[in-house]
Structures
1.
Amino acid sequence: MIYLTQILGNPVYDLNGERIGKVNDLGIATGEVFPRVTSLAVQGPGRTPFMISWRKYVGSFDEDEVHLKVIATDIRFSYLQPDEVLMARDILNKQIVDTRGARVVRVNDLKLSDTNQNQLRLLGAEVGVRGLLRALSPALEKITLHAARSLGKSIPERIIAWNYMDLLDRDLSDVKLSVSHKTLDELHPADIADIIERLDPRLRGQVFAQLDEEQAADAIAELEDDSMAAELMGDMSEDAASRLLSEMDPDDAAELVGELDYEKAEKLLRLMGVKERSAINQLLGYPEDTAGRIMTSQFVQIDESGTARDAANVIRGLDEDFETVSYVYLNDDEGRLSGVVSLRKLVAADDTTRLKDIAYDDIVYAHPEDDQEDVAQDIAKYNLLSMPIVDDKKKLQGIVTVDDALDVLEEEHQEDLQIAGAGHSDSDNRSGSHDIAWLVRNEFWFIIWMAGLAALVGLVGEPRRALALALGSALPVAVVAALDSITYVTNFFIEHDPDDPDSPSLVGFAFKGAGLGLLFSAFVALVSTGIFSAFFTGSDSLYRVGRLGAAGFSAAAASILITFLLMPLYLKVLSTRDERGKETSGTTLQVIAMAIAVVVFIVIALALVRVWGL
């Protein structure tokens, strides 16, 4: 086996051993299960590029060089054919879709089969760390593998076979890459949505355009980011966008229309059919975050006097794209919801069985104005597949299905995590940028400490840098305490409902924060004072170091106290912004709290230095 990165840059010699250039790229014919290399792209003298036929001119090759079977003067140039792509230019370091794993990956190297001395075939893409190491240096890959083996670890290859790859970022848009592999439009809509969300913004539209209307409607409904869905729809023509909305379930379509600007939404609704437009308008009439906004108008309801045969006939007559039926809802003579029959009971009943006799009359229902999170929690609590939504006269208006309830609960959970400063990461797609972002987010206190230390050094001046460094050794205590205080505040905010009468009041929380601050700051002051008094005595230099340390930790104790006294203010900010429907990043609050702690520390530390004559 050989890899593309091992071939690129290798010298190319003619039959007489004369060097004519170096390998610039390899061309492959894409219409095969494992494409054969058809062209050799060479960078000749004076950096002049040219391409020749692999089969016609290449005699032998290895990891170090390529030899042609003709002399230089007999070479005739060729051109890239319509069914060919260049591996380095069009595939290497590009995003691809692994259609088997339904994910987006980056190609770090390409694995080739060299079983035939004069023929190469592309086996697949290396998407793991070994490809990155090899691209940097084959020696680096070997050293890393050897080090891993000595520690009892292994770094396996991560190869995706070519027949499970779908290349996205290419200029040759008409090239069909593989006639046998599972194509993008055969994936489950949820997998397609995951792929679209992970792509670069410039590629999303290209992928979405490959889907037919039904697949596109299902995929766009699965997107977690509504603004991304609106952006995709905004790039479509009005006729195509209107047809897409018509294909979607009414609740999903209403949610998407709500993300569009008013003029765009009005134009699309006018182009839709009367029935679909009416269903969407009905849902849009309810406030956001209510049950009415997420309910669907697709449900089965018949008269309670009907039989099991009547219900079965109604279900058989439904369209293929009708919302999944889990229950049949019954209405009395006045049109009010009177019972629910599960699909299981309906299948088990005789054709002549009256629906009223097998129905549940102890119905759990909600109203359109009810909070969607409460409805979702009730669906989970009572193990329902859908919940009926009724008006004041108990007439059925729609149903909230379990999948929509799960979406609501997940959304609320993600909001809580964001408030708490936690991030969302995909374990199957951890790139270097995600790792760096995670590191910065979780170790930001260190950056704040360094910034505070630099500020302290700058304030005391160059002649007294040693003093600043001694004081700054206590600064991490103040910074980490500020970080912990915000974690405490956000956890308290998430766990306690302010509308709950049993929830602690803001005044009670303030007293608790003050008590914690006093305990923590007193502990830091007493312990540090004891340490410096016990170990830094005797000579004048040791005594001065002890005094500097005591000044630093005294400033840290004062900063801790002020940090905990400010906790009610941070809680009030969270509550106020939440009431206004605004999200607040826990990370932002942490940075603010740490910055305040640094400022307080510096002010108090410099004041103590001046007062104590240090």
Note: The radius of gyration is 34 Å.
2.
Amino acid sequence: MILERIEGPWDVRDLNTEELKQLAAEIRQFLIEKTSVTGGHLASNLGVVELTIALYLAFDLPKDKVIWDVGHQSYTHKILSGRREMFDDLRKFGGMSGFPKRKESPYDAFDTGHSSTSISAGLGMAQGRDLLGEDYAVVSVIGDGALTGGMAYEALNNAAHLKKNFIIILNDNNMSISENVGGMSKYLNGIRSDAGYNELKKHVSTALSSIPVVGEKLVDKISRTKNSIKQLVIPGMLFENMGVTYLGPVDGHNVKEMVKIFKEARKMDHAVLVHVLTKKGKGYAPAEKNPSRFHGVEPFDIETGKPKKEKEYPGYTDIFSRKLCQIARENPRVVAVTAAMPDGTGLKAFGKYFPDRFFDVGIAEQHAVTSAAGMAAAGLKPVVAVYSSFLQRGYDQILHDVCIQNLPVVFALDRAGLVGSDGETHQGIFDLSYLTSIPNMSVLAPKNLWELRADLEFAVNEYEGPIAIRYPRGQAYRGLKEYEAPIVYGKGELLAQGSKIALLAVGSMVSTAEHVREKLLEEGIDCTLANGRFIKPIDEELVEQLASTHKFIVTMEENVLQGGYGLQVTAYIHEHHPQVKVLNIALPDAYVEHGNVSLLREMLGIDSDSIIRKMREVYPDAESPQSR
């Protein structure tokens, strides 16, 4: 196998055309086999195999810098840079990340994970290169989906001012270009990317400009006429008008063509965009047929493409999806907004049943939030469904456009808390902190699937202000069904009465608190169990009741400690009941790497056994009577 001989870029450069084709096929088979075991991002990686090989042939990595937007399509890059043997531990704790990480390899030029950032990062790197007098190429690879993000256009606007080489590769796996326009574009591209042609343009412009009186006007007229013609025949005029030279489109599965155009792009003394057409999921029939489903996969059967482990029970996303559709049938003012995640957030069904009330704004969280604010101001009841870590991108819009006006926008935060294998950029462990810091914002966290339904009903049909509901990834908790206190604004619930020790938890940690109580009961220690339910406002009446009747209170949340629920409770208790001990169970002030969620919870000390150990370190009465 050729793949087994690849230990770095130098091995790729020694291959002939036929061997490169074979290498691409072997890489695809390797990726399918490995992700079928570990899970990961498959369709996007299958689409960029030849593109990545061409980058390794046209550029001198790691001296030259390649920045992958989002970064979930960097698996081939990791293989060609000598990390093939690390794929058995892909996305496992202590193993290789599914995204570029500078600490992992010198070939990873910039850490990525969220969308639409690569052009900004690449431009900054090119500016740093030029100011320091260094000489290397900077290449930003961005997808057509990521190009829907406003940050990409902010960067393109600035890239036009660059006076040195900077290459943007548009990995387009969705847009099709008709043959007549494509053929003309290819012809013109061959002329415009030619070094001699670009030199000729410079000389002609300089010569004409030197003609007294009419020179500058003549250059301007020729330029405007030329641009009018290009507008008709060149699909990249958007970029040209922004001051970025457009080259392409080029077949993203033809290594030879891409290497040629990449080398021509490198000769430019300004920003240039190369338009590359690829097929997402290429080489694996199930992924080609349904690239969205194979974007991020759990372990699957290669022959059928079906997951190896079917879901036993519906997840929180499924519960949210069904309940929202039910509410929307009864309330015609309800609309749903997503930022390019209809499948992941559960809004695909809503879009099917209520197409006129469903808005997918693309990868544009800031726009999603402010457009929802506009809908609310117009009299609608928008529900913005988004991953917790992605809503971070709309913080200013939540504060400035939603909450200052106290508009009734509902934020449904999926993937809140630890999400596992995607690592630092995707862990939803900051939302309680950044949302509770905003005036007028209210925050709920359901303890189980029934409470999620009740929370959503309350937020949409009863509450008239900004409100967020955060819930974790995966299977919905089915315990504690017997406790179904109605949702009352700002009120929690008492689930079990004990003495001395009170466990006060929110969201996903209520089930953990239940397990802590069960284990302590087996040792003869009877704890009170309470569900905070509202993170903002906290239920001061419930906290007062617990502090007045207990000596030790343990708060639990799946969020960082700073700015979280526990510190709010602690502040109240220290002010009104300073004699009561408080232990805050939360996540540390740190980024959490990728790994199995159960393993991460244990490592971070928020599993039931770790919590009991911490309780005994702080409060002696938490020791079992037998061990005293």
Note: Residues 17-38 form the longest helix (22 residues).
